[in-house]
Structures are given as C-alpha cells and as structure tokens.
Amino acid sequence: MRTMLAIGALAAAAVSWCAEAEAKGAKGIVREGKSEVLYLDGLADPKRWAPAECTVEVSKTLKASGRPTMHLHIPVDHFAGEKAYPVGWPRMYMNLKRPAETGWTKFERFEFMVHAKMSRDKPPKQVVNVQIHCPRKPRVFYRNLSEIRLGEWVRISIPIREIKNTEEVARLGINISERDYKHGDKLDFCFGAFRLVRSAEFKLLGLKVRSKVVYRGQPKLKVAFDVAGPPLKIARGLPLTVRQGKRVIRTETLPVKTGLQTMQIEIDELKLEPGDYTLVAFDGDPERRRSGTFRVVETPWEERSEKGEVRNKNEGAGK
Questions:
Q1: Residue 215: how many CB atoms within 10 A of its CB?
Q2: Does position 248 have pLDDT exceeding 60, yes or no?
Q3: 52-64: pLDDT as tens digits
Q4: Does 221 lie in the same domain as 181?
C-alpha cells in the first residue's frame, strides 16, 4: 500500500507547515462543545455594506446570541426602482478582508443567524437571498433563506463543500426580488453571529469503498472519504487498517485533506487472496471508527454471490 505509507519527512513537513499556518490563522478561534468556531463579527458592521433600495444600520434592539448584529430594512416599492426595472432587487454587498475573513477552506460550515419581521402575515416562498462570490473563476453561490420563521431567530448553516472555489471567496451579497412581495410590504431582517465552524477533532463524516469487487492482483482500491477537523490534526494522517474478519492485514497512515475526496489506494503489495475484507479508519476508536467492505475475486470475470459460490459475470448476458 504505497499510497498509504506515511513517509516520515513528508509527513513531518506537512505537520510543520500546517502548524505554522494554523498558528497564523488561529487567532480568535474558540472551542464551543465539539466544534471550533471563528466568529466574523466584522460582517455585521453596517459601514462595510453598500445598500441599494434599502437601508442598513446597527440593530438597536435585537442581538444574535449577543454578537454584533445589523438591521436591514426594505420598503417594497414596485415603482421606485431603477428606470428599466421599477420592480427591482433591494440589495447590499460587502468585500471580505483577506486573509482574516477568507480562510474558509479550513472550516466545514459558514453560519449566521437571521431574524425577520414583516408587515405581512407570512413570508413568501422566496424570502431573502444570500450570495457568496468567489470572483476569479468566477463563481457565485446562491442560497434562499426559506427556513426563516417570522419573529424567531434562525441559524443558517451552509456546508462549505457546496461552495465552489472557496479559496477565492471575496464578497458577500444579500438581496430580495420585489416580485416576491406586494407593493408596500415592510421587511426587517437582522443578521448576526457570522462564523466559520469545524469539528474540534479529526474525524470522518463518511467512508465509502467504491471498488466493491476487485480481482486478485488488482493494484488499487478506490475509496471516498469525507474528512473533518482542524488542519493541524488532519495533517498527521488518517490511520487505516485492512482486516479479514478479526485478522489485521495491514495498518498504515494515509495523507488526507479537509472535505470530500476520492483516492486510489494501492493494495498490490498486500497480495490479497480471494475473500471478503474490511477497510477500517480509526480502528480501536469506537467513537471515530468508520469502515467499508470489499471483495477480492480470482479473476476480473468472476464474482462471488452472496451464498459464496463463484460464477461468471457474463453468464446469462443478453437473456
């Protein structure tokens, strides 16, 4: 399993580099339960937002979990928008500070809280939109906050894996389409407790062996991982064990990174005989243990049935 070998110098260099990067970027990270959190309170500063067809100010009465909070007021007017589009898009945008507010790839979720009050009885299906701009590609991530409930604080949680090119995140936007509202509606949104969140411990959110059947001598096993946790701990590598029943075939350390990834793990040197095997991550740690099974068969043209007999995969083809 050459891909799984933890090459000492390389692993040490990775940990050293990651420790340096973490030390530079860890200012302000706090532990909350089983999570590490970096609050981005600057995102709730009204002075940094550029509003159009709406107003934004510091919230005077409501606070999101005691954090800085801004108040967005939108008077829906179907006649006062831009000349070509009188039924317009009240909106506001802000630029993120680099690097203090743009290290999203080190985290798992972008979160904030929102409170809504309206002059109407209930919100429409399309309530208010958040945009996340990663401009150099360019990419814009849109999210409608349909989970909003009037008069209540709601936490919005966006998995960072859903946002393309987060290493280039640079700008945020908030808007509505006035077509979703009636003329004269009054809308008040409070936003606060902006933060980046990740697991406080290195763990797997998922492990899936994609090569469910391999033939004897096949060199690689395709496996998908969903990795979470602090970069410094992840840099130490993922412990993986190949088992056949209770027998341990090999335990190695695999270099991985944060998030979803699919890897080709080399298994040719294990010389696995036909049979059923289990790939286990964090073997011996019940809380973090994840596993997936695969089967080794004699040739590419054979597979074992659930009853254990061997048959030709092409047998009966076309019937």
A1: 16
A2: yes
A3: 999 999 999 999 9
A4: no
